[in-house]
Automatic annotation (TrEMBL):
Entry-linked InterPro entries: YjdM, YjdM_C, YjdM_N
Positions of the Protein YjdM C-terminal domain: 46-111
Protein origin, superkingdom: Bacteria
Protein name: Zinc ribbon domain-containing protein YjdM
Stated family: Belongs to the YjdM family.
NCBIfam families according to UniProt: phnA
Domain Protein YjdM N-terminal: residue ranges: 3-32
UniProt-listed PANTHER family: PROTEIN YJDM, PROTEIN YJDM-RELATED
Source organism (scientific name): Exercitatus varius
SUPFAM superfamilies linked to this entry: Prokaryotic SH3-related domain, Zinc beta-ribbon
């Protein structure tokens, strides 16, 4: 049996197929299976404000972040130049003050 996709709007797992569309009973969102296939082909990274990020962009931290396994704290407003987008738990590879870090895009805004 084919695996049903999650709802693109609310990420609910309780989706059913209704003739030509998929329907989410939680948020009542309807979409065609063709849209799901097109969207899943390419990963899109977005910052905390919903702006699309690309390789080479400059970003700014929106909150203080403690570095795991270290006493370093990355301060709010620190700027990372020339980011690189990667797949994985942490979306962005960058350098801040000459040190390499892997950060999540939800803590960044496009400069």
């Amino acid at each position: 049996m084919d695996q049903m996709p999650k709802c693109p709007k609310c990420q609910s797992e309780f989706v059913y197929h209704d003739s030509i569309n998929f329907v989410c009973p939680d948020c009542a969102y309807e979409w065609s299976g063709e849209e799901t296939a097109q969207e899943s082909d390419e990963k899109i990274w977005k910052d905390s404000n919903g702006n699309v990020l690309q390789d080479g962009d400059d970003v700014i931290l929106i909150k203080d972040l403690k570095v795991k396994g270290s006493s370093i704290v990355l301060k709010k407003g620190s700027k990372a130049k020339n980011i690189r987008l990667v797949d994985g738990d942490h979306d962005v590879d960058c350098k801040i003050d000459g040190q390499p870090f892997s950060l999540k895009s939800e803590f960044l805004k496009k400069a």
